[in-house]
Design a protein that fits this description.
The complex is a heterotrimer of chains A (271), B (295) and C (428).
Chain A: H1 3-32, H2 53-60, H3 63-95, H4 99-105, H5 108-111, H6 114-127, H7 135-158, H8 162-170, H9 175-186, H10 188-204, H11 207-212, H12 220-225, E1 228-229, E2 232-233, H13 235-261
Antiparallel strand pairs in A: 1-2
Chain B: H1 9-42, H2 60-66, H3 69-102, H4 107-115, H5 122-132, H6 139-146, H7 159-185, H8 188-196, H9 201-229, H10 233-238, H11 250-260, H12 264-294
Helix pairs in contact in B: 1-12, 2-12, 3-7, 3-9, 7-9, 8-9, 11-12
Chain C: H1 2-23, E1 44-51, H2 54-69, E2 73-80, H3 82-94, E3 102-106, H4 107-113, H5 123-127, H6 139-145, E4 146-147, E5 150-151, E6 154-158, E7 161-166, H7 167-172, H8 181-190, H9 207-219, H10 236-252, H11 262-270, E8 276-280, H12 283-288, E9 299-302, E10 309-311, E11 313-317, H13 325-335, H14 338-346, H15 354-357, H16 360-365, H17 369-379, E12 382-384, H18 391-407, H19 412-427
Helix pairs in contact in C: 8-10, 9-10, 9-18, 18-19
Classes of the chains: A mainly alpha (271), B mainly alpha (295), C alpha/beta (428).
């Protein structure tokens, strides 16, 4: 076997192992969503007649609406973060704009535990009288998504050679056009990753979602956590809800990856 | 052609400001306001079950928190957790990203599927593993027993490591996502040139790929570490900080103090103590990294 | 660049302080209302925050009957898991605008919420409600709702613990239901053989382990507090109780179960992998319900060995910032009235009134006479885990020390001493 083929098979086995490790709990969750409560107590049960009671329970309980709300909040959060984050990351990377204070100051909310920040958010929401909407939640999510997206992009902008931008300026582009048309496309892979990750952070947040949203507008993670009842974890229903949360995002990230991450032909740089 | 490309001090300054403004405005509201309010709370005796306005007590909360052994234990516990989890995630993430980059068949599907663990809200991950690892009902001990093995996943001395492994399961995909994007952004020319010159794969990796990947890699490690510092849901779902205080992380500790025991002023002071420790550390490490890069 | 940043932060600071000023202070303390009887055409919406437990479902099922008597009062029930519910409840108290008009409070919170002015005093209402018979509620439950001589609520449901066991497993092994701590140890060990264990324990750090172990403490003749309110965990009885508990964990409990809480233990018992567990008295119907598994119907409830058990209780309470206090009382007094309570218990609700458990309909239509006899016995000798303010913190502190002892990282003496010190520091 040639060295190439050997490495290639090694890679294949490694990836397959990773898929198995990642997939095992997910397969279990999928099976669990079709099991009755009694069947869930049997770890060896793989082949069985599927039951739909968990799915009907979950779908009737409004999980799709909760997912819709989560998607709305996450979508808005990510769009704002992508716009504000990319422009800011660019000047921070190129010009060290804002200095240390800006660059590290925005991380402050990342370090503080949500348990401490949630009451300030709540109080502020009441003061501005937006407490009965999803707005406080969007701002709470922005507090940790925006810094993350910005930092992501600073790292990627740092990898773009200055010569590219200088060339654009020599060619007569304004600073902004140079940014938009020449530098930004170079970081599309990073932007794609940042969008996926920012969306995920918002999609997964349960803590702010619990305290800051009005009772009737529960978001998805709160709905999922609601299956942890006093009479025990409703594993079957929770598993169905997990799948509702995961599958759409996996599909969406599939398309984002295709478009953005592999968009440009590997950092085409014209020296 | 609108403007001559000469560097004009004022116009550069204005440009920077305009580009930075959206971030400043949004952060000012979303980060700045709550931060200031939380800081104010840390200087008061605010309790969630008190009547009337909170009294300013200056640094009393800080003194109390600094002398609280439980807080320092929590910091130590969380630090171990972060070190174990992030190290594993970085190494595994890098290996997987490198493999995915070279992969030819079913690329997009593999990538999308490997990301899946990230999209499950952490409390659900915690609860799922709680049952997967359950000695009598769980699939994993079931498999281990069929091989004759017995392991007390959430027992004394092992619980923290198990939680770190759960973190690795959920968040290695994050590293993969970021590092893959980073690898795809690296200009191909230097790599091609080196290969043409006959350099081996390991050499290329160490001398060319890794240095070019450093900005992205350092950001990945930073962000993941900050996130791992806040671990709460896994603890809450499985051990509630036990056995003893083995898995009592900072976030769990402050949550208990602030929301279960109602002492929010004190909890706020703990959060700021954490901030004062962590933020300068980050700044210091990044400055050093930047110095090394420019050398 | 730096200048504009400083300006931004300064502006943020001022705004935040203004916000703090506007929003500080909790809900207004309204004068306690004396309205007991509410007219049938009262109109309002009553928003209730409850815990997602079987008893809440039963309450939801009775709302239609309530609306037959009070057609214009709309009941909106929000049911959440325990910690989420508590977090939302605390958050609701912080706002001056009413979020919930009626709530349920866990017993450790009563001593913190009442002095904080969150709850309405309802002695007047109770006195003015005809045929209410407040004395009919079980004593321990009434005491929990009474803080400093004033009543702040009425019982919703109890969660006193008992010994739930698999009857065939015990009789097949020729064993009787244990009636003392020593018998509990020997019986549990005798039932541990092969894949089966004698007692599914819940040694999860914090609340669960303390809740379970306190029953052992009582069985050993000990108590949590002394007469003067100081901690009593430094007694020889506490030592014996903890040693027995650790003995059982190591020899009669499922392997690798150090983090087990209710869920795991319940599943272990319902699949007959364990013979018994110490749990809430109203779990018996859940264990015996047909869709719980192959062993439904085999389970029985007994008092804890030793006769005294841990009690928990949820209490209906009206927040002082309620927007519909009178209508809330209409609902509460209706659902806790003697007639409706019979309906509730027949449907499977946990007992709060003595008369209900002696009601013929309940005995014939419910879950069997011996079940209700056991509950009467349990509720007549039960005590809560915590008395006085700082309840949650005390429970967590003691629960941490107990967990250390079972994990082996502290000796029994050290752990009990530390736990006792914690009681005195936090609640002394």
């Amino acid at each position: 076997m040639t060295r190439q083929r050997f490495l290639s098979s090694l890679r294949g086995i490694f990836l397959l192992t990773a898929l198995v490790v990642v997939g095992f709990p997910l397969v279990w969750v999928t099976l669990a969503s079709f099991k009755t409560p009694a069947q869930l107590n049997d770890p060896s049960l793989i082949f069985f007649g599927p039951s739909l009671i968990n799915w009907t329970h979950v779908l009737e309980g409004g999980i799709l609406q909760a997912a819709g709300r989560s998607a709305l909040v996450a979508g808005i959060t990510v769009i704002i973060s992508a716009v504000a984050g990319s422009t800011a990351a660019y000047v921070i990377s190129s010009y060290k704009a804002g200095g240390t204070v800006t660059r590290f100051g925005i991380l402050a909310a990342q370090v503080l535990p949500p348990a401490v920040l949630v009451f300030p958010f709540l109080t502020l929401a009441y003061v501005v009288r937006v407490n009965d909407s999803l707005i406080p939640l969007i701002f709470a999510h922005l507090s940790f998504v925006l810094p993350v997206v910005t930092w992501f992009l600073i790292g990627f902008f740092d990898s773009v050679p200055k010569s590219l931008e200088e060339q654009a300026r020599v060619d007569g582009f304004t600073r902004f056009k140079a940014f938009m048309l020449v530098v930004l496309p170079q970081v599309y892979p990073g932007l794609g990753a940042a969008i996926i990750f920012g969306f995920t952070l918002s999609w997964n947040d349960m803590f702010y979602g619990l305290i800051l949203t009005p009772s009737k507008s529960a978001i998805l993670p709160v709905a999922i956590a609601g299956f942890n009842t006093f009479r025990g974890v409703e594993l079957g229903s929770m598993s169905a809800a997990i799948l509702v949360a995961v599958v759409p995002v996996v599909i969406a990230s599939f398309f984002i990856q295709k478009r953005l991450v592999q968009g440009i032909s590997g950092g085409a740089v014209k020296f | 052609m609108r403007r001559s490309p000469t560097v004009n001090q004022t116009s550069v300054g204005w440009f920077q400001l305009r580009m930075l403004l959206p971030l400043l405005v949004v952060s000012g509201i979303a980060v700045g306001l709550p931060l200031v309010y939380a800081f104010y709370l840390s200087l008061t005796d605010f309790s969630l079950t008190q009547q009337g306005v909170a009294q300013i007590v200056g640094v009393d909360n800080y003194v109390k928190s600094l002398s609280n052994g439980g807080l320092w234990d929590a910091i130590a516990t969380t630090t171990s957790y972060v070190l174990i989890a992030v190290t594993l995630e970085t190494i595994l993430g890098l290996l997987i990203a490198l493999s995915l980059q070279k992969q030819k068949w079913a690329r997009d599907i593999t990538r999308a599927m490997l990301l899946a663990p990230m999209f499950i809200t952490p409390i659900a991950v915690g609860l799922t593993f709680r049952f997967l690892l359950n000695d009598q009902l769980g699939a994993i001990p079931f498999l281990l027993k069929s091989l004759g093995l017995n392991y007390d996943f959430l027992g004394s001395g092992k619980a923290l490591f198990t939680l770190a492994l759960i973190d690795v399961w959920q968040w290695t995909p994050f590293m993969v996502l970021l590092l893959l994007a980073g690898l795809e952004s690296i200009p191909k020319q230097p790599l091609e040139a080196a290969r043409v010159d006959g350099a081996g794969a390991l050499y290329i990796f160490r001398r060319i790929t890794l240095p070019l990947l450093t900005p992205v890699l350092s950001v990945a490690i930073l962000l993941r570490s900050l996130d791992a510092l806040k671990v709460f849901e896994y603890v809450y779902a499985t051990t509630r900080g036990g056995p003893g205080t083995e898995t009592e992380t900072i976030q769990y500790f402050t949550y208990q103090t602030g929301i279960q025991f109602f002492r929010l002023g004190e909890a706020s002071s703990m959060a700021f103590i954490l901030l004062i420790i962590v933020l300068p550390l980050i700044i210091f490490l990044f400055r050093r990294l930047e110095k090394r890069n420019t050398e | 660049m730096k200048k504009s940043l400083t300006k931004v932060f300064a502006l943020a600071g001022v705004t935040a302080l203004l916000a703090a000023g506007c929003a500080s202070g909790t809900g207004s303390t309204s004068d306690a209302s004396d309205v007991g009887e509410v007219s049938a055409d009262a109109s309002a919406t009553v928003r209730i925050l409850m815990e997602a437990v079987p008893d809440t479902d039963i309450v939801k099922g009775l709302v239609a009957d309530f609306n037959a008597e009070y057609p214009n009062i709309t009941i909106e029930i929000e049911a959440l898991a325990f910690d989420q519910m508590r977090d939302k409840l605390i958050a609701s108290f912080q706002s001056s605008e009413p979020t919930y008009d009626l709530i349920v409070a866990d017993n450790p919170w009563m001593d913190d919420f009442a002095p904080a002015g969150f709850l309405e005093a309802i002695d007047g209402r109770i006195a003015n409600t005809p045929n209410y018979d407040h004395e009919d509620f079980f004593g321990p439950l009434r005491e929990i709702a009474d803080v400093g001589g004033t009543t702040y609520g009425v019982p919703f449901y109890n969660y006193a613990l008992g010994y739930l066991y698999n009857e065939p497993l015990l009789t097949d092994a020729g064993l009787a239901v244990p009636t003392s701590l020593d018998e509990l140890v020997t019986t549990s060990k005798a039932l541990t053989a092969g894949d089966q264990t004698g007692l599914a324990m819940q040694p999860q750090r914090g609340y669960k382990i303390f809740e379970e172990w306190a029953n052992f403490l009582f069985a050993a003749g000990g108590s949590i507090y002394n007469e003067d309110g100081s901690g009593a965990l430094d007694s020889p009885e506490a030592q014996a109780a903890l040693e027995a508990y650790i003995d059982l964990y190591n020899n009669a409990a499922p392997a690798n179960s150090l983090n087990w809480a209710f869920d795991e233990a319940f599943r272990s018992v319902s699949t007959a992998q364990s013979a018994a567990m110490v749990s809430y008295n109203w779990n018996l119907p859940a264990l015996n319900s047909p869709d719980s598994g192959d062993f439904a119907g085999d389970f029985k409830l007994a008092t804890m060995p030793g006769g005294k058990q841990v009690l928990g209780s949820w209490t209906w309470a009206i927040p002082t910032n309620s927007a519909a206090a009178d209508e809330a009382w209409a609902f509460v007094s209706w659902i806790t009235s003697k007639d409706v309570d019979v309906e509730r218990v027949v449907a499977g609700g946990a007992a709060i009134r003595e008369s209900t458990l002696q009601n013929e309909r309940v005995i014939s239509e419910g879950f069997g006479a011996d079940y209700y006899d056991a509950i009467i016995a349990i509720l007549s000798n039960a005590a809560p885990l915590s008395e006085g303010p700082g309840g949650e913190e005390m429970i967590q502190a003691v629960g941490t020390e107990l967990s250390e002892a079972v994990a082996g990282t502290k000796s029994v003496e050290e752990a009990l001493k530390a736990a006792n010190d914690a009681i005195n520091t936090i609640q002394g």
